[in-house]
Amino acid sequence: MRTTLIALALLTTTLSTTLVVASSHAALAPQDDTLKPVAMRADLAIASVTVYRGRAAVTRSGAPTLAQGLYELRVGPLPLATDLDSVQARLGGTAKLLDVKTETVILAAPSSDNPRVREALANVDESREKLTDIARRTANNAALQKTIDSIAAKVASDASRDMGTTLDPEKLRGQLVFIESERERLTEVAQLLAKEKKDVEGELAAREHALAAAGGAPPIERFALVSIAVPESAATPISVTYLVSNAAWQPSYTVRGDPDKGALTLEFDAIVRQATGEDWTDVELMLSTAQPTNAANPRVVDPAYIDLYQPQPTGSVSAMSENMPGSPREMSMDMPAPASAPMAGGGKYGKNAAVIAGFAADAQVGGEGAAVEYRLPRAFSAKSDANAERKTRVANIDAKPTFTLVAQPLVDADVFLRARFRNESGYLLLPGAARMYLGADSIGRANIAETAVGSEVELWFGKEPRVTAKREMLTKVNSESGVFSKAKGIDRGYRIELTNTLARAVDVEVWDRVPVSRNAQAKIELKDVTPALAIDDKYTKDAKPQGLLKWTLTVPARAEGKDAKSVAIAWKTRLTWPEGMIMSGDVD
């Protein structure tokens, strides 16, 4: 037995010595400092900007040379208008992205040398002290309410115990009256405190606004913190992209038409405004029609269900209430089934990925997607200024127009010049204002509608006073017919004269109308039309059934030294309806 104890003691001593030695070696082992991230500032310049209709995606880029190790790169400061949820980073080379987060730093309190700032600061402090006092009184009031609840519970317990023995009804009544009055008082105090808090919060907001207006608001700075792993020393390309508000662009057009040469040029410009808080200097500019949001997925169509129920006998109130609108039974009947479509983006960074997806794709002009992007071939600069706008050229579009004069002498004595052309430029034309020029003459403004590639554009260049159209009604004869069933009728004859004083022939499109009957007993007859009406598909399918008349004809040029010759259009109409009925809507 003694030998065993000695052996155990020796074994214990040996193990202890071994553990001490091992611990000593562990303490002396060198630490791997590369496993600790190195915090450093990364000065990345603004390299490219994608401007949307109301915001912009700004990308800062650089390629700092980094040794092997872990880094937390501090990029910024970012503008105050930055959407922090949108901040994303990309790396090139062999470096790996570990994490992206943002940080808001409140700088030192503003100087109080200015009397106006000192007064505003004092007012803000006063309002904050009021809120602190209100919070204290609210807590005390809540504690008193709990005390009253405890007293009420004690009174109820004592009354139950003494019921039928030593219970004093008058004493119990007095206790209940006290409890009720205290509850009413404390509830009223709580309501007054809530109202006072709301008023003081409004006062504080106004005073903080006054402090900011006085230049005393504490400034803040925002940064993007990008954690990366660099496996080997090298230049590491890095870019940080974020969405920022207070930036927008809109299209602006200048249209120059030359009917004599049959030419039309459309100058497509972009007006860019930005007050983001940072200047854009020699950046690559993209103009996008997309609207970046935090969700790229559409709403889903839920299934709808119908059901039948047997009406209950009249007088059964409970049965009627079960089937009234909004009752639990009907609500369960109308409850849509759960949507099965998955949401786009998941996990911690799902919504951020959806924000970036639109502007991270390759730029395409006139693509099949819902949005297009115009990448300018030149560097662009714009200082942050809410009162300034910059115009930059997107494209010069040379079109192949068809110029046509349009006459509608029924409603307008003037003849107008119209140009139509197909958008074969490869650019989606966005809605915007256009300044119109005919030759070197400015003739006003027009609006260009959204026009996809391959679609037709219609533009108006104002009046052409050298071509005239005159309309007149030549005849109007009222008549009656029939013996047993009499009918009334009106016969009319019309004429339009077109005169061209230009030295070249012009194509003219002439419009008029004939009434359309909505009653089978009222009949309209169009006859003796010269020249014949137009026969193009668009007219015959759309306008002709509505009673609109269209002619397309060429009016010859005026011969030199001679008077212009007129070209005439003529037609007749006959309107009949039963006697005894009143005609409405008839016009000459």
Global outline: flat
Q: How many strand segments?
A: 25
Q: What Rg do the Cα atoms give? A: 42 Å
Unreliable stretches, pLDDT < 50, 5 or more residues?
Answer: 1-31, 315-364
Instruction: Quote the average pLDDT.
Output: 81
The largest sheet, given as strand count, sense and whether it forms a barrel, is:
10 strands, mixed
Determine the number of helices (DSSP H or I, runs of at least 4 residues).
7
- End-to-end Cα distance: 137 Å
Instruction: Quickly give the structural class.
Output: alpha+beta
**In percent terms, what proportion of residues is strand?**
35-45%
The residue fraction in helices comes out at 25-40%
Overview of the molecule:
With 588 residues, the protein is α+β, with helices and mostly antiparallel strands. Among the domains are: 115-213; 303-338, no CATH class; 467-578, no CATH class. Helix content is 26%, strand content 40%. The protein has seven helices and 25 strands. It has helices spanning 2-28, 115-162, 169-213, 317-322, 328-334, 350-360, 537-543; strands at 38-41, 45-51, 54-62, 65-66, 69-78, 82-91, 96-106, 220-230, 234-235, 238-258, 263-274, 280-288, 373-382, 385-399, 402-407, 415-422, 432-438, 441-448, 456-463, 467-481, 487-500, 506-513, 523-530, 548-555, 566-578. The strands form five sheets. Strands 2, 3, 6, 10, 11, 12, 13, 14, 17 and 18 form a ten-stranded mixed sheet that branches. A five-stranded mixed sheet has the order 19-16-15-22-24, with no helix packed on it. The protein has a four-stranded mixed sheet with strand order 1-5-8-7, with no helix packed on it. The longest helix is centred in the first third of the chain and has 48 residues, at 115-162. The radius of gyration is 42 Å and the shape is flat. It starts with a helix and ends in a 10-residue tail after the last strand. The model is unreliable at 1-31 and 315-364 (pLDDT under 50).
